[in-house]
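are you around this afternoon, could really use another pair of eyes. what follows is a protein written twice so to speak, once as letters and once as C-alpha cells for the fold. i want to understand how the C-alpha cells follow from the sequence so walk me through it. anything you notice is useful, everything is just below.
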Amino acid sequence: MSRGQSSSAPAAVRGQAGHGLAAELPAVLRRAGLKLTPQRLAIVRALSGDDTHPTAQELFERLRRELPGMSFATVYNTLAALAAAGLCSARSFSVGRPGRPGAAARGATRFDPNMQPHDHAVCDACGAVYDVRRAAPGSREPDPTPPPGFAVRVVEHVYRGECSACRQAQAARAPRPPRQQNRPAT
C-alpha cells in the first residue's frame, strides 16, 4: 500500500494532488502578498503536489538541487506567508509515544496544502503524518463540549499509532522462535 493508505488506518484523504494551489500559482502568490519569483513558484508547486505534510527543511532540501541559489529563509518565509493567507496550514505534531524519551518533544512545523476539513494520523515510530477524512455530517459521533467560555475555532482529531511500513519493519525485526526439527522417534 502507498503511504497514506493502511488497512488499519482510518480512510485517508487522497486523490487531491494539487489541492488547488498549483492550478493558480500566480494568483496564489499575489493573494499571499508575494512577488512572483521562480523560487516561490517552485515552492508552491512542490507543496501543492505533496501530501506528506513536508517541513520547510524537507522542501528546501528537495528544491535546492534545481534552485541552488535559493535560501532556507525564502522557503520558510514563503510557506509562512501562504499559511497566513489561509492557502495552507502550518501544524506541529508531537513526536513519539507517551512514556518514551522525546515523547513530549514538538515536531518541526509541517505544512499542509489540503485546506478541506480533515483530521490527521501521526505515526509514533517515524513521524509520518497522514490526512484522515472526517466523519460525514449527521454521523452518530458526539459533538465535543468545550470548557465554558471557550471559543472553538476548529475541531480536529489526531490519530496516534504506527503506520503500516513501521509495523511491517518491526515485524521483520521481531525474534522468531527456534525451528522445531522433526526427529524420528527411537
About this structure: Strands lie at 89-91, 110-112, 119-123, 129-132, 158-161. The CA atoms of residues 56 and 79 lie 7 Å apart. Residues 17-115 form a domain with the Arc Repressor Mutant, subunit A fold (CATH 1.10.10.10). Residues 72-84 form the longest helix (13 residues).
